[in-house]
Amino acid sequence: MAEKTDKPGVKVVSTNRRARHEYEILETFECGLALQGYEVKSIREGRVNIADGYAVFRGNEAFVENVHVTPYSHGDLRVIDPLRVRKLLLKRKELDYLFGKVKERGLALVPLKLYFKGPRVKLEMGLARGKKLYDKRHDIAERDAKRDIERVSRSRGKRDVGRNG
Fold this sequence. Notes:
By secondary structure, this protein is an alpha+beta fold. The chain is built from four helices and nine strands, in the order E-H-E-H-E-E-E-E-E-H-E-E-H. The protein has helices at about 15-20, 40-45, 90-105, 135-165; strands at about 10-15, 25-35, 50, 55-60, 60-65, 70, 85-90, 105-115, 120-130.
């Protein structure tokens, strides 16, 4: 169970690191999830995968698909589909805003982080635009350059300490 804490009362259960690589995140939204039966206990155990998830709009509601919640190990015989479509709990203004944005060309709503905020399960969704291959390469090159700069500055700091002391 890989639980980390960002803020007091918040326990992160799952993060979608691939989403930040594949997409440019424009905005983030916190929303609740409509869950059934054992799903909260299973999520508390960390048995959830949000990497392939995405949001769709049906009528006036938003749903998240392809979020896999493994059945609870100590649950009853009634098994709920692990990949079932779950409703996102958002305010009407947020739904209307997101629906308008997703209708624009190239924007998607992807899950970034699943966490507990107090006793409630929350899902951080990101309004995202897909990155091109050259954008991904550029990000990797930037990250490598920062790493090299930090390495050089650390080694210079150690060398200077030896000369002065």
